[in-house]
Design a protein that fits this description.
Number of helices of chain A: 10
Number of helices of chain B: 8
Distance between the termini of chain A: 70 Å
Number of strands of chain B: 0
Order of helices and strands of chain A: HHHHHHHHHH
CATH architecture of the largest domain in chain A: Orthogonal Bundle
Number of domains of chain A: 2
Oligomer: heterodimer
Helix content of chain B: over 70%
Mean pLDDT of chain B: 77
Strand content of chain A: under 5%
Order of helices and strands of chain B: HHHHHHHH
Shape of chain A: globular
Mean pLDDT of chain A: 77
CATH class of the largest domain in chain A: Mainly Alpha
Number of domains of chain B: 2
């Protein structure tokens, strides 16, 4: 195969549907400039979601990077189809949620020596922010799935349908799961003396 | 657990999400009284405010890397995947050619075994018989063709055919 043919084949694979996307896409696929802007607007909230639901900032950083790489590599992602920022953001959170779930499912092999010291400093240090001091212990008592649902609903402001898309759960069950999780964490927050903030 | 949604929950949620809750509570004592008395709305305000504060702090402490590095990492991964995908037809053609060759060899062995390997038995006889009388006028080539050597030619032809078929499969897969 000639070099030109290889280049052509590679560019077709790298930008799938570039010649035929016009029929189904409303805007061109994301280029590096558009991605930089999208990253700037979404990275911090994605990191916050991963860090608070996992309780591990270092893990959150790793998973965030992997989420963006997978987001860019996915052939049918909203970024490739040019569907706009809101679906793209939801898709990104979905990837991150799946990565986090895979991480939790994986058998834990890290020994205590492998965990950096600043991890303990971050989770128990005196410089910790006030909300993290109150919400953190309550979140730790919640199940991972409950943490995700609560964060998506009350920190990100997602609707039940959007949460269903991100988590892969049935839309009908989100309402009940979220209601139970909210009641549980509200009780924990009240027990911790946070109810006065109302 | 009973799932009872308060009719005013949506209104309260919108106020909290817009960051207007404490102010709205001061200007609307009736709503404040409702939230104080309604467990569902009370939970909503407590939880939503806690999460919004936590989000604001977490977003502030987030250390995000360079977008360019992630972009190129993704491009590299895509390129590797593309190269791997383009190499797949070659491997498929090789496997196909190997499988056809193996089938032909097995077929020939079975066929010759059924005929009692007659050409193989004649081979040393033919060679020794014409050894004294020279190459060209000995009729050696004719005897080869008339004897089992034609089977060897058949094997080479079949192997060539198999290789060609592999090339055809490769070209077809590449077009796809």
């Amino acid at each position: 195969m000639s070099l030109t043919a290889w280049e052509s084949a590679l560019s077709n694979v790298l930008a799938p549907g570039a010649n035929t996307a016009g029929a189904q896409a409303s805007s061109p696929p994301m280029d590096d400039q558009a991605f930089a802007g999208f990253y700037e607007r979404s990275a911090r909230s994605l990191w916050a979601y991963l860090a608070r639901t996992s309780g591990d900032p270092a893990l959150a950083e790793d998973l965030m990077q992997e989420s963006y790489v997978r987001f860019l590599c996915a052939p049918h992602s909203p970024s490739q189809l040019g569907e706009g920022e809101v679906p793209a953001r939801r898709y990104l959170f979905r990837i991150a949620t799946n990565l986090l779930r895979d991480h939790w499912r994986r058998p834990r092999t890290a020994s205590i020596e492998e965990i950096p010291e600043d991890f303990f400093a971050q989770t128990g240090g005196s410089a910790q922010a006030d909300s993290q001091m109150t919400l953190g212990p309550a979140l730790k008592q919640m199940r991972p799935r409950e943490r995700q649902l609560l964060w998506l609903a009350y920190a990100e402001g997602y609707s039940h349908r959007e949460i269903a898309e991100v988590t892969g759960l049935a839309s009908a069950s989100i309402r009940l799961l979220l209601f139970r999780a909210r009641r549980k964490i509200a009780r924990l927050l009240r027990d911790a003396g946070n109810g006065r903030k109302l | 657990m009973m799932l009872r949604a308060c009719p005013r929950e949506k209104e309260v949620k919108e106020l909290v999400e817009r960051g207007q809750w404490p102010v709205a509570a001061a200007t609307a004592p009736e709503l404040r009284a409702h939230v104080d008395g309604c467990r569902s709305c009370g939970d909503l305000v407590l939880v939503a405010m806690a999460f919004q504060n936590a989000r604001a702090e977490a977003v502030g402490e987030a250390k995000v890397g360079s977008a360019g590095a992630l972009w190129w990492r993704a491009q590299l991964r895509l390129r590797n995947a593309a190269v791997e995908r383009l190499g797949r037809p070659i491997l498929g053609a090789q496997i196909f050619a190997l499988a056809v060759n193996l089938l032909l060899v097995v077929g020939l062995v079975v066929w010759q075994a059924r005929h009692g390997l007659t050409w193989f038995a004649q081979l040393p006889l033919t060679a020794s018989f014409h050894l004294d009388s020279g190459w060209l006028d000995s009729g050696w080539f004719d005897s080869l063709l008339s004897s089992g050597w034609s089977s060897l030619v058949l094997i080479f032809a079949a192997a060539t055919l198999a290789l060609l078929s592999g090339v055809v499969v490769y070209l077809a897969a590449e077009k796809q």
